[in-house]
Design goal:
globular; binds magnesium ion; 27% strand; alpha+beta; Phosphoribosyl-aminoimidazole Synthetase, Chain A, domain 2; 60s Ribosomal Protein L30, Chain: A; 308 residues; 2 domains; 12 strands; seven-stranded mixed sheet
């Protein structure tokens, strides 16, 4: 089973009244109409052996990551977290102290973002630890006019930006300690017209493909412009650029703005983290990587494989 195919199969079969469900499956969060307001919601799971390694990372970090991944989806919509509920399947034999650590990991990062853990469910089974978090958020713009930013709003000519730097997050543990870009997303949305946005959880290449597919566009990406994290470089046998494009677990923001706003954003010292312009949205639906010499090659969804 391919995750992307399965998700688009679901999206193609979902039927909603757009007045009641303005945004259904297929974005970082769904948006439902709610008594004259809009409620955003999403669910995300963190599994031992997939998203963390309990034996190495410990229960506190596991809990933190489960909540932080969800907060990153809130950031991807430029929304404000409201609260979360968690469902946890504990391995039989886990100590009370370790179970408490999971809770504290969830709660502490939730509290940092005014997102209290307001309920949940605990079971025990003879498998590995599984944590599922459902998060709720609201549009940030009751006063500031910020609407949720979708994946589908990118248009040809938009400038493509990414926050921070990418690559190497898993091997250095950054995937456990990252700061969800909730505040930064709202600052960006207040100062710029964000046309489309997604958080980089599965790698720049894959998440860029998702954004382009949702928007019905393509992209020209300048290889030399992709911000490569120092973690991506040391002691590996793959090219740093390949790591930046394919590793994932960065939880940075990938977004587009109208061409006319790109210059101002590049020099804007009011943005509380580095943002880098990496390319341009194209009408042609291909996602293309442009090498420094000018050669163009398709950027596969799985990331770019360095050859020689
Ligand atoms: Mg996401």
């Amino acid at each position: 089973m391919r995750e992307n195919e399965f998700l688009s199969w679901i999206a193609s079969r979902s039927r909603f009244d757009a007045a009641k469900v303005p945004v259904g499956p297929g974005d970082d969060m769904a948006v439902v109409a709610f008594g004259g307001e809009r409620l955003l919601t999403a669910v995300d799971q963190a599994l031992d052996g997939v998203h963390f390694d309990l034996a190495n990372h410990g229960p506190r970090a596991a809990g933190r990551k489960a909540m932080a991944r969800n907060l990153s989806d809130v950031a991807a919509m430029a929304a404000l977290p409201v609260g979360a509920v968690a469902s946890v399947a504990l391995p039989k034999g886990m100590s009370q102290a370790d179970a408490q650590e999971i809770y504290l990991g969830l709660r502490d990062v939730g509290d940092e973002f005014s997102c209290p853990l307001v309920g949940g469910d605990v079971s025990m089974w003879d498998q590995r630890l599984a944590i599922s978090v459902t998060i709720f958020a609201r549009p940030a713009g009751v006063t500031s006019g910020i609407d949720p930013v979708l994946r589908s709003g990118a248009r040809a000519g938009n400038a493509i930006f990414v926050t921070g730097a990418l690559g190497g997050a898993w091997r250095t543990g950054r995937h456990l300690t990252f700061q969800p870009r909730v505040r930064e997303a709202i600052v960006l949305a207040m100062r710029y017209k964000l046309r489309a946005m997604i958080d980089v959880s599965d790698g720049l290449a894959m998440d860029l493909h998702r954004l382009c597919r949702a928007s019905g566009v393509g992209a020209d990406i300048l290889a030399a412009a992709v911000p490569v994290h120092p973690d991506a470089v040391a002691g590996r046998n793959i090219a740093p650029l390949e790591a930046a494009l394919g590793d994932g677990e960065d939880y940075e923001l990938l977004f587009t703005v109208p061409r006319g706003q790109a210059k101002r954003l590049e020099g804007d010292d009011k943005i509380p983290l580095p943002v880098t312009r990496i390319g341009t949205i194209t009408k042609n639906p291909d996602v293309v990587l442009i090498q420094p010499g000018g050669s163009r090659q398709p950027l596969p969804e799985t990331g770019w494989e360095h050859k020689g």
